[in-house]
Protein: Ferritin-like domain-containing protein
Organism: Paracraurococcus lichenis
Amino acid sequence: MASDIRDLLKMELQDTYSAETQILEALPKMQDSATNPKLKQAFQEHLQVTQRQVERLEQVCQQLGIEPEGETCEAMEGLVEEGEEIMDQFDEGPVLDAALIGAAQKVEHYEMAAYGTLTAMLKSMGETKAADLLAQTLKEEKDTDELLTQLAESEVNQAALKTAANDQTKGSRGAA
């Protein structure tokens, strides 16, 4: 049974490592499902960023003498499963793009919580080098979330609304 903050830190690092490795597997599928070119590019770029984040986590674990593998992030398993369900439920196009952004932002918010917690714990333990590394990752997660919001507001949601309006127009013509 875990009894001190170091045990908690180990659990949190392993959980976050598991989450990031699951995201590495999910991002290519999301990229393939997206139709908006900027969204496809955002997923591609975030895949590269996530690879660096995994390396950073490995570096922090090495500094602290912690094995990065161990815990399984069940929360991320659920978020990834939700994303896969979305890809199965919607046809390719703007509505799916909007749904993918929502799924990705849920992931980003989970990661922001994880990295915020880890950074605070490391700072309180006097592990400033490790805290600084994970604070960098926290900033990247926030930046990705902001990019996704901008994409949704500037392009994707409007395209999804136009799709819905076109579908309604077609439906009302067919019924006449």
